[in-house]
Design goal:
Elements: E1 7-11, H1 16-27, E2 31-36, H2 39-49, E3 53-57, H3 63-77, E4 80-85, H4 100-121, E5 125-134, H5 138-141, H6 147-167, E6 173-179, H7 194-206, H8 216-227, E7 238-241
Parallel strand pairs: 1-2, 1-4, 2-3, 4-5, 5-6, 6-7
Helix pairs in contact: 1-8, 3-4, 4-6
The chain binds NADPH dihydro-nicotinamide-adenine-dinucleotide phosphate.
The site of NADPH dihydro-nicotinamide-adenine-dinucleotide phosphate (NDP) has 28 residues, from helix 1 and strand 2.
Length: about 260
């Protein structure tokens, strides 16, 4: 077991990539606290994950709620070895059609809250702990309509490097997992009809060298690697888990003869 005896906290652990990671962490021997806003899905996730998991309602943009959740986690399972700052929202912010509130909501959730989650956890992290931040391929792809989201995730990758510098003296590692399109609820609302959604999925798959959309599990396995001692010398890295979408786009099915 790769996380035997370790304790972890995952923000946004009640769905998608966060829940897939929580399942894997528990299976690998960790005690895991998950947070999120939705009471029902948190309760459901806690039931599924069993006695080695704790679910706490906490909006990541509410610093006091985040601090309280971290304290609850530490009271139940002890100081943290792993922090996965994963909670995030999409957000359509095209030029010419975006409000200040809409733009700031994306930055507050995906960037500011990540900083304050790490800051709140700091006194409760063991030396040698692993912090993983959830980035995105959108930080480098220039997809239209994503200014705020892209900026937030580019901020995450920049911030991770600063944090790694600041925390290296304690042996704390800070790394980014940067997923490409993964099948989760975050895509809900990305297309107006079921047919349009299928067409969108096909378009994404055809523009991905490996020809498919990821499952949340595939992202979770990279998070597990970064969390575990297998990544003991990996510091301030960003691992793209995107089927080649950023590194080798010319290999995508749409470019094949
Ligand atoms: P989901 O929508 O399935 O999950 C998002 C999670 O974040 C939910 O558990 C949600 O819970 C939680 N969350 C959202 N806002 C808040 C908040 N303010 N406070 C606490 N929890 C919050 O999406 P994914 O699993 O796909 O997304 C997880 C991360 O992965 C995000 O950071 C996303 O940007 C990133 N990502 C996803 C990709 C994909 O294609 N799926 C691609 C690249 C990056 P609740 O609603 O209960 O608060």
């Amino acid at each position: 077991m790769r996380l035997a005896g370790k304790t972890a906290l995952i923000t946004g652990g009640n769905g998608g990539i966060g829940l897939a990671t929580a399942r894997l962490f528990v299976a690998e021997g960790a005690k895991v606290t998950i947070t999120g806003r939705n009471r029902d899905t948190l309760r459901e996730a806690a039931r599924e994950l069993g006695p080695n998991a704790l679910a706490v309602v906490a909006d990541a943009t509410d610093i006091a709620a985040t601090e309280a959740a971290i304290k609850q986690a530490v009271d139940k399972f002890g100081k943290l070895d792993v922090l996965f700052a994963n909670a995030g929202i999409p957000g359509n912010t095209p030029l010419g059609g975006t409000t200040l509130a809409g733009f700031e909501q994306v930055l507050r959730t995906n960037l500011t809250a990540v900083f304050f989650t790490v800051q709140a956890a700091l006194p409760y992290l063991n030396d040698g702990a692993s912090i993983i931040l959830n980035g995105s391929v959108i930080s480098v792809l220039g997809n239209p309509g994503y200014s705020a989201y892209a900026a937030s995730k580019a901020g995450v990758r920049a911030m991770a490097r600063v944090m790694a510098s600041e925390l290296s003296p304690r042996g704390i590692r800070v790394n980014v997992v940067a997923p490409g399109a993964a099948r989760t609820a975050i895509w809900k609302g990305a297309a107006p009809t079921a047919e349009a959604f299928t067409a969108l999925e096909q378009r994404i798959a055809r523009s991905t060298p490996l020809g498919r959309i990821a499952d949340a599990d595939q992202i979770a396995k990279t998070v597990l690697f970064l969390a575990s001692d297998d990544a003991a010398h990996v510091q301030s890295a960003e691992i793209f888990v995107d089927g080649g979408a950023t590194g080798s786009p010319a290999g995508a099915p749409i470019y094949r003869g």
